[in-house]
Structure formats: C-alpha cells, structure tokens
Amino acid sequence: MKIDGQCHCGAIAYEAEVYPDSIRICHCTDCQQLSGSPFRANVSAPAETFRLLRGSPKSYIKTAESGNQRRHMFCGDCGTPISSSAPDNPPAYSLRVGSITQRAQLRPVAQIWHRSALRWVDSLSAIPANEKD
Asked: Is-contact 78 9, C-beta < 8 A?
C-alpha cells in the first residue's frame, strides 16, 4: 500500500510502500516513553520504498532490552516520531502510524511486548468516550 506522511509541523514529509498486514502495537517501555503514550503503532516499509520528500530528521541510536540497536528518527522542530530502523543499511523502516496520512486505513494485526502493557489498555472500550472535547 502506498502511503505518505509528515510530522506535526510539516518540516518532515515522506512516502513509502507499507505492508498493511505488518501493523503492530508495541507496549514496550521504550515505546511508551518515546511516544509519551501507553503504546505505539508501527508499520513496516521496505527501505527501497521509503523516501524523504522534505526535511532532514534528527536521529539517535538506542539499545533495546533485547540488545538490538535501533536508529530513531524524529522531527527536530516539533518532536514527531517518524521511524526506527537498524542503525546502518536498514532493510526496512518501522514507520510510526500516527504520522501517516492514511492511518485510518491501517488496522493493527498484533500486539507485542504485552507484558509491559498498562493494565487498563485492554479495557479501553469500557471507558466513556466523547466524539469531541
């Protein structure tokens, strides 16, 4: 599926082909801290399809609990997370679903690192919801 996306302020824009059946919700403590949220949704894009259209993301390398190193890219102006990948010559990018224009069409197929999930996450549908604030 062809997608495009951008950061919140518009300084970074990109496009890619993603695998819609690769969307996962990650509950790891790194994703919680990096997103400022209880979890993060990611979708895989082969490196050869990922193309920056505007801007130059900032990045840093983080060593995860698994021991794997990941390069995290984000907008240096507004802080929007864009992706993570292997530090060098990545075969794919893990794009942050929240920055993708077509995010409403992307449905998660799995949850990972669920042992770190906040206890109330699985009962979100029971919490009253308002269409607008």
From this structure: yes
| CATH code reported for the domain at 2-118 | 2.170.150.70
Structural Rg of the chain based on CA atoms: 15
Please report the DSSP string for 15-68 in residue order. Answer: EEE--GGG-EEE--HHHHHHHTSS-EEEEEEEGGG-EEEE---EEEEEE-TTS-
Answer whether 7's CB lies under 8 Å from 80's CB.
Answer: yes
Question: Tens digits of per-residue pLDDT, 35-82?
Answer: 999 999 999 999 999 999 999 999 999 998 788 899 999 999 999 999
- For the segment 6-26, the average pLDDT, to the nearest whole number, is 96
Residues 6 or more apart from 21 whose CB is under 8 A from it? Answer: 109
Q: What is the largest CA-CA distance in the chain?
A: 45
**d(Cα 122, Cα 128) in Å, to the nearest integer?**
14
Domain ranges of the chain: 2-118
Query: How far is residue 84's CA from residue 67's CA, in Å, rounded to a whole number?
Result: 15
The pTM (predicted TM-score) of the whole model is 0.90
